[in-house]
């Protein structure tokens, strides 16, 4: 899944403490993280980064808020950029922790990885993460590419899964980003994995309003929309299941430096992970995109609702 979402939530800073961190040595994508006497490991302070899209920023504030409530000094550094930028921030020590997605992170560290299901991807990811860093427990919450159809189409043709598409007798068009023409879970995957022929209608808005309009307007029968996008529920769309795990699992997972991953920090974050579901992400994203609430407020309200 290539994240090219243009919409960003307003960046806020959870200004609870400042922190100086030791730089990491170079080597693999993260390098070897070393701990100095002033690092976050010794002071139980954590800087949480976020990628440059609203959901990830919300998750960063969720992590930081939970840590703060547990008596751990936490600061958020939001909207750092795409994966190369925030991985560099982990490497140079300017952040300690970032919310990540298992499938994409695995492919970043191991481009030849073949794992697809949640458990397989997570197991492979644990082995692929460079020395000095780790991933904590994955949440059931996922934000992945998903194929969606209208309820009318689903009812008319009895389509609930990608495998069911073989029953459809009309030509199928799919609205998605242009790269769907070559991605393993795009047009080629539908053919090779499910035996379904489709024609791509390229719309470069990452499952946004133009993609939605093409689907609901009948210009296409399928649309690739990220699974936590509020428009799926708002428009009563049917997300097709993927019984053969063609689409790489994308469970939310904390990527953290070893020096910041104290027993207390780990325990707090894993309680958060246990409470995160895909429906919870959708609800938080709705508050961001529809209600225009700040990432910090959304995170605070969610933590209170879960007694975290």
UniProtKB/TrEMBL annotation:
Signal peptide extent: 1-22
Natural source organism: Microbacterium candidum
Domain ABC-type glycine betaine transport system substrate-binding: 45-304
InterPro entries: ABC_Gly_betaine_transp_sub-bd
A Pfam family matched in the record: OpuAC
Superkingdom of origin organism: Bacteria
Name this polypeptide is given: ABC transporter substrate-binding protein
Keyword terms: Signal
Lineage: Bacteria, Bacillati, Actinomycetota, Actinomycetes, Micrococcales
């Amino acid at each position: 899944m290539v994240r090219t979402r243009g919409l960003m939530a307003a960046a806020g800073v959870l200004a609870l403490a400042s922190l100086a961190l030791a730089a990491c040595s170079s080597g693999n994508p993260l390098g070897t993280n070393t701990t100095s006497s002033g690092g976050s490991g010794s002071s139980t302070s954590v800087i949480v980064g976020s990628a440059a899209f609203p959901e990830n920023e919300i998750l960063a504030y969720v992590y930081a808020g939970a840590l703060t409530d547990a008596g751990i000094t936490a600061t958020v550094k939001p909207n750092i950029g795409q994966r190369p930028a925030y991985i560099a921030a982990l490497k140079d020590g300017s952040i300690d922790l970032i919310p990540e997605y298992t499938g994409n992170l695995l492919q970043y560290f191991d481009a030849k990885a073949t794992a697809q299901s949640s458990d397989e991807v997570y197991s492979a990811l644990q082995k692929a993460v460079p020395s000095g860093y780790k991933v904590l427990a994955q949440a059931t919450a996922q934000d992945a590419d998903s194929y969606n159809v209208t309820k009318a189409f689903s009812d008319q043709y009895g389509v609930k899964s990608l495998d069911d598409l073989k029953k459809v007798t009309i030509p199928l068009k799919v609205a998605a980003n242009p790269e769907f023409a070559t991605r393993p879970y795009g047009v080629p995957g539908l053919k090779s994995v499910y035996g379904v022929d489709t024609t791509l209608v390229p719309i470069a808005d990452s499952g946004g309003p133009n993609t939605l309009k093409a689907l609901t307007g009948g210009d296409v029968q399928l649309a690739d929309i990220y699974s936590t996008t509020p428009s799926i529920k708002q428009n009563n769309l049917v997300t097709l299941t993927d019984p053969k795990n063609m689409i790489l699992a994308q469970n939310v997972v904390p990527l953290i430096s070893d020096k910041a991953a104290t027993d207390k920090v780990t325990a707090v974050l894993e309680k958060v992970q246990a409470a995160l579901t895909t429906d919870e992400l959708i609800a938080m994203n709705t508050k961001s995109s529809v209600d225009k609430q700040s990432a910090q407020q959304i995170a605070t309200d969610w933590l209170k609702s879960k007694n975290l």
